[in-house]
Amino acid sequence: MTKTSNGLFHWLAGAALSLLVAQAAAKTTAVEQNSFLYPEQRHENIGELITQFIQKSHYMHIAVDDELSSRVMDIYIESLDRNRMYLLASDVEYFDTYRYQLDDVVKSKPLDPVFEMFEVYQTRVRERLSFALTQLENEPDYLTDTEYEFDRSESPWAESSAELDEIWRQRVVNDALNLALEDEPWEKIQEVLSKRYKGFIRRLDQVNNDDVFERFMNSFAHTLDPHSSYLSPRNSEEYRIQMSLSYFGIGASLQTEDDFVKIVSIIPGGPAAIDGKLGPNDRITGVAQGPEGDLEDVIGWRLDDVVDLIRGPADSVVRLEIIPANAAPGSPKKIISLVRDQVKLEEQAAKSEIVKIPRDGREWSIGVIDVPSFYRDYRALSNGDKNYTSTTKDVKRLIAELEEQGIDGLVIDLRGNGGGHLTEATALSGLFIDNGPVVQLRNSNGRISRLDDPDPVARVAYNGPLAVLVDRFSASASEIFAAAIQDYARGVIVGQQTFGKGTVQNLYSLDQYLRAEDDNGFGQLTLTIGKYYRVTGESTQHRGVDPDIALPSGIDAELVGESVRDSALPWDTVQTTRFRAGKPLDNTIESLTASHTERSKDDPNFQYQVDMIRAAEEVRSQTTISLNIEQRRTERKDDLDRRLKRENDRRAALGLDPVASLDEIDDEDRPDVLLDQAAGIVTDLATMRAVAAEPEQTARARP
After folding, report:
1. Which uninterrupted H or E stretch holds 144?
2. Which of 210, 408, 487, 548 is catalytic?
3. Catalytic residue at 27?
4. Mean pLDDT of 487-492
5. CATH architecture of 246-339
6. Which CATH class is domain 345-585?
7. Residue 276 has pLDDT above 70, yes or no
8. Which one of the listed residues 476, 553, 600, 626 is annotated catalytic?
9. Does the active-site annotation cover 501?
10. Cα–Cα distance between 233 and 510 in angstroms, integer?
11. Is the dihedral of CA 85, 287, 262, 675 positive or negative?
12. How confident is the model at residue 188 (pLDDT cuts 50, 70, 90)?
């Protein structure tokens, strides 16, 4: 391939002539409108180094060959246009000429094809947004019977520009309709959408060489597994800032998906976690400064630009306009106000409470310890401070305090706990089991090591009735702890199948391996180098930990979790290690499940939860939406009416007064249904233990 003087590259000679002419014309437009993008020599050096790391250090020792190249191509195209709104079928067909060349490109050859494909994408985006701007010249008809397909991820690629024009005509009508439903006048709608589309073009023009290279290298890394990734020098610094917690923000991890910035996770101890109204998979559509500032529409923005808007001085207010994760298409947006602050270690700390459960003529006290993450203050520990903060030390103290108050059972709540320090997972397990192995680790060389209870001589901190409450966001270290409790038959696991992240990553700063000829740097590589295994030999990877007693969850396991990701490493096994488990709980779990099932039938809060989940599933199944404003208003009203009826049915069953509007409901007053169910299950355990401890004649006399 020949490199031209202006930094662009000729198309392959074997392409069809008609396609050559069309693509060349598109490229000429791109040259006129955008600063030239081209691969730099250091990008080629980074690609070669990362390839070496992958072949030598990645857990699977994946061969960088034509098969891998084909998968990289699919992921790269998806990263450019996941919803198939910009590229034509002919573009994708043209890209296919490079399908088996990307492995050679990343190993040793110029990265020209990667940048060439991105330039075609850039051109198509400009074409689409320019067309969208022309559609704002006249107010659309909001009374058509058209259905807009907003999820095109599984649809065929458009065959022509005319087909894309129709798709985008509908998209603009939908964008305008969403604002019209908020009673915005057409002049305001024109202004908002014009600014949005022009801003998208402006940010596209700000893309630099590192951005293109990072996007491709992440496509390459994500072909290996979901947790291997590459960060450019700029984003490496951003990562360092986030890990140091030296900035003031909202305490949430963000990523872009299509035109939206989406919440990936909520960081324990941050403002968003403390407030509790923002959740994973919520999408941010606007950001405002202060209690009264105007909302800035951020649809289509670069992630770093949105992050810059969200950050600000300590104790200042930022307002986020969001589309909730389970909201029906076209639902009203929510405004959430957060006070910027640092993530506070004390807010990450485990906390306890006591839940009272009336049963059999008495009130049972069930202790609950919420563990939001597995933390350890290594700085204090390295300085010799014996009072360093850690999950295990905090939980041990809380158990002692709860037992002083006379609890009958204990729930360890790991919902939303994405993991943390492995040492803490093993140490926390040691509070509930006698000395023995907790988890096995196999590295990329196949060597298996065993991690045991780090304090084998210490007595268990608690040996009473125990349940561990988990959900789909319980991951990594949480899964290690839950698996150990299950394998040792020390307690019952209740809730939802966990995330399934059973892999170990290592971070490589590439500046240590390459010599910089300028100040740009080389970025960093995160690479999967090992896998975790339970003491039984089964991996927690992909499958996670299955609960002994399943509870309904609003988290869709078909959208969240390791098993959802195409490149997730498989579940497998190693040899069982020697460990001493308790008495099998199979019969106990069967009895607990039967009691829970029977009890939940008459629990209004439980049934309300089930109904809410069913409604959310119906919403998630939608891929189209009406472009008729009257139908949308009717659908919105019907949805609100159904939600209000569900709430008032629940309240009536509980003997509470009805409400006229959902706005009257304070989220903090809503019951924690899953926690209540877990506490009920532990009460059953405590009841069984109490019966078992009674003298034989007393137990025989029970009805």
Report:
1. strand 143-149
2. 487
3. no
4. 96
5. Roll (2.30)
6. alpha beta
7. yes
8. 476
9. yes
10. 9
11. negative
12. very high
